[in-house]
Amino acid sequence: MLREYVDTTLEASALAHLFTMAGFEVESVEEVEGEPVLDVNIMANRGDGLSILGLAREVAAKDPAARRTPLFDRLSGLAARSSNEGSGSAKFSIDILTEHCSRYAAGLFEINAVPTPPMIQRRLLQMGMRPISLIVDLTNYVMLELGQPLHAFDFDKVRDGKIVVRQAREGEVLVTLDGVERKLNPEMMMICDSERPIALAGVMGGLETEFSGSTQRVLLESAHFNYRSVRRTRRSLGMSTEASYRFERGVDPEGVVRAIQRFSELLEEAGGGRLSGGVVDLYPSPPVREAIQLRMSRSDALLGMSVSPSSAKGYLQALGFEVEGAESPFTVAAPTWRTDIEREVDLIEEIGRVHGYEHIPEKLPEGSTTPGGVVGESREVDRLREELVRCGLVQVVNYSFESESPLDDPNLTKVGPRNPVSQDVALLRSCLWQGLAESCRRNGGMDVHLFEMGRVFGGDVSGVQERRELAILSVGSLVEKHWSDSQSVAVGFYSLKECVERTIAAVERPIRFEPAPADPRLHPTRQAAIVSAEGNVLGHCGQIHPDVADQVGLSPETFLARLTIDDLLAIPRSARKLAPVSRNPAVRRDMAVLVSKSVPFEAMRERIVEACGEVLERLWVFDVFEGSSLPEGTHSVGVALQLRKLGQNLTDEEANQVRDRAAKALESLGARLR
């Protein structure tokens, strides 16, 4: 069939190679009805390739020995625009009441009941279509030949001879040709008569206006519909047709009337009828073809090979482009069937396709090289990940889509796609905790220690947000129980806090922890806010709230942490202080401090550090005692001070003086030594 449109000496295998090198991958070559048939995979943005005429155009451009046949030139020369001759006396009218239809044409045909010519039946079988009747077969044949979908109505069933293209109204229904009743909504574009919908625009016709063996007059529709509208209707109804497949990938608006004229030719040749009047053509929104400047210097740079200006101009003209100018830069206008052409790089791609990418010369790379490796912020993210692994946690990667959960971020409104695949994955995650909880449940729910780093999404008063987050879930023992141990040690708040501190220390960012019963997902008295030096909250850590744990199926002894990576890495690094290693031994002094339970240790630490000065190398809590022997509302905190002096040994007297200064400083908090 292809050879009727382009005269080429290439055999089927050579044509398959030509199409593949031109960007149309040929999946198979089979013999059907005694002729080779190529199964060509068309890219989503190349709707022009869904027709024999479009593929013939590619062969004529890429094969230097190929020539277009008279049939190709005649079909290309059929009037693209209708003069609407006879439309004043037409027995039907057309109204377009939606912006999603840029062109609608129709012709009224008187038909006779004759069989489809054997040649057309054979061609349809070769293309994988079953012959049905003359009118159906001719509409399919023209669609395969020119790429323009057609639809035929029984004109005597179209009420008042009126065609209205509009959006569906709420509550309307349509029984389509497959016998299924479809519920319509205002997002769907419809073809209607004066009273009711009679077709889904660009998808499928209605059963009530289907023609039959007794039909004498057929109204043939040829139109250009917005591809987004067709796709939305098809997806909403869960159906797909040959027509919708083409409309979604782009149909030539200038080929609308041409398809009706070709149908009329074939109908008369088959003796099946004739056009009984002119073609009524409404074209409210003709496409505007923007001129694109093409620089050959840019083409050579992008392609990596030199193509002469005359060759480049010839390639584009062979593909139907209008090229002005004798030399570079050229002014190029894309044909209306090439909706994928928007920029100069698109033109350069066309030149490369036709010239042949196999002609790009082999050339060693030139220029300076940059050593590989992860640098900058990516390296810091890696440091966070590595430190979490050192803490004994296992990284997981969960889906970004999920459902509603008690673990969602209460400060964000969850967002999601308009047409979710399932209600279980209808929303984008606002927090990583839900995915970690699901991973924990799948792994038994005990002795599970996980972390995840990923993006979370949500809406607030400022709009939709997207940010990177780090989250931790830990429950049970972190160290496998040994046979000699009486019992294993379970993870607690302070072990989680230590893990967070170590992780943030790996990227050298100053933070502190503050009591903050602000997150309703965590236990109100067993949580803390992770705060920057400037006072900005980076995240939270703590024990899961018992009610939330019960709702999501986790142990109430589960501990969670989360922080925003972007906010953390935006903090300036802590200044590094380098000091020589002291040869002098350290001295330890312990203090048992009686202090109110309401005083956080961070406040104690700040005063001790200020009072001790440079000799304080390290301090930590080694014991907390509560009992009836202590005043109500107080506890005893055991604090260890590690002291060291550079260049000389600390005497006992000097160490005691440092401890006394620390104790004196704590008195401002109402604390005293026991």
Automatic annotation (TrEMBL):
GO CC list: phenylalanine-tRNA ligase complex
Cofactor(s) required, per the database record: Mg(2+)
Enzyme class: ligase
Subcellular location per the Swiss-Prot or TrEMBL entry: Cytoplasm
Domain B5: 287-362
Taxonomy, superkingdom: Bacteria
Matches recorded under Gene3D superfamilies: 3.30.56.10, Bira Bifunctional Protein, Domain 2, Ferrodoxin-fold anticodon-binding domain, Phenylalanyl-trna Synthetase, Chain B, domain 3
Reaction(s) catalysed by this chain's protein: tRNA(Phe) + L-phenylalanine + ATP = L-phenylalanyl-tRNA(Phe) + AMP + diphosphate + H(+)
GO biological process assignments: phenylalanyl-tRNA aminoacylation
EC number from the UniProt entry: 6.1.1.20
Domain FDX-ACB: 582-674
This protein's UniProt keywords: Aminoacyl-tRNA synthetase, ATP-binding, Cytoplasm, Ligase, Magnesium, Metal-binding, Nucleotide-binding, Protein biosynthesis
GO molecular-function term, one example from the UniProt record: RNA binding
Co-factor binding comment: Binds 2 magnesium ions per tetramer.
Binding residues annotated for Mg(2+), in chain numbering: D340, D346, E349, E350
InterPro entries according to UniProt: aa-tRNA-synth_II/BPL/LPL, B3/B4_tRNA-bd, DNA-bd_dom_put_sf, Fdx_antiC-bd, Fdx_antiC-bd_sf, Phe-tRNA-ligase_IIc_bsu, Phe-tRNA-ligase_IIc_bsu_bact, Phe-tRNA_synthase-like_B3/B4
UniProt xrefs under Pfam families: B3_4 (PF03483), B5 (PF03484), FDX-ACB (PF03147), tRNA_synthFbeta (PF17759)
Assembly and oligomerization: Tetramer of two alpha and two beta subunits.
Family: Belongs to the phenylalanyl-tRNA synthetase beta subunit family. Type 1 subfamily.
Stated name of the protein: Phenylalanine--tRNA ligase beta subunit
Native source species: Candidatus Nitrosymbiomonas proteolyticus
Lineage: Bacteria, Bacillati, Armatimonadota, Armatimonadota incertae sedis, Candidatus Nitrosymbiomonas
